[in-house]
Amino acid sequence: MGPGSGPACDLTLNTRLTDEQRRRFQSVDTIRRLLRDARTIALVGLSTNPAKASHFVGTYLQHEGYRIVPVNPQAREILGEPAYPDVASIPFPVDVVDVFRPGRECLGVAEQAIAANVPAIWFQLRIDALEAAERAEAAGLDVVLDRCIKMEHGRWSGTLHWAGMNTELVTARKRRRPLTRSEAP
């Protein structure tokens, strides 16, 4: 057990999942590994509207150094990146498909992720996608269900508490000042 992975850090976030489903689809080890190892994240349902949660998450992930791939059939470009109509249309590998779509659309997204050999799929908070999660898991994908990728990144990088959220992690880590363009390598 590493730092922050004990029972005191096992947040339920008012999930509707059973204990067994939480063990399968909200594994701290899986979440931390995906956040650490992923570099390219496709955001299915990324909105062009800055007031939407998906847009905020995409902006945050870009700021944190991830390459985001917008998946939105109604858009040509979002956050300076070309948008694709679906996962199957992305012409390069992605590490994680992050889903911001209603539960009724999630099985189709999972099937596309499986067909594209994407290693992981992440269903955002409050998306009822248990069938899609089980299908993706059966196909060998890492699956996260009913968690927010932005909140989990902030939680495990030690920054979520800056926004007033109780992460149930105790840290003395100070906020790092982002490099300006002139300081960047």
Describe this structure in words.
The protein has 185 residues and is of the alpha/beta class. The protein has a domain of 119 residues: NAD(P)-binding Rossmann-like Domain (Rossmann fold, 3-Layer(aba) Sandwich). Helix content is 32%, strand content 14%. It is built from 6 helices and 7 strands, in the order ααβαββββαβαβα. The chain has a 5-stranded parallel beta sheet with strand order 2-1-5-6-7, sandwiched between helices. Strands 3-4 form a two-stranded antiparallel ribbon.
Which structural traits does this protein have?
disordered N terminus; single chain; about 180 residues; alpha/beta; 6 helices; two-stranded antiparallel ribbon; 7 strands
Indicate the mean pLDDT: 86
Largest sheet: 5 strands, parallel
The CATH architecture of the domain at 38-156 can be given as 3-Layer(aba) Sandwich
Backbone CA Rg:
16 Å
CATH topology of the domain at 38-156: Rossmann fold
> What is the overall number of helices?
6
**Portion in strands:** 5-15%
CATH class of the domain at 38-156: Alpha Beta
Helix content: 25-40%
Secondary structure layout:
Elements: H1 19-25, H2 28-37, E1 40-44, H3 53-63, E2 67-71, E3 77-78, E4 81-82, E5 96-99, H4 103-115, E6 120-123, H5 130-138, E7 142-145, H6 149-157
Parallel strand pairs: 1-2, 1-5, 5-6, 6-7
Antiparallel strand pairs: 3-4
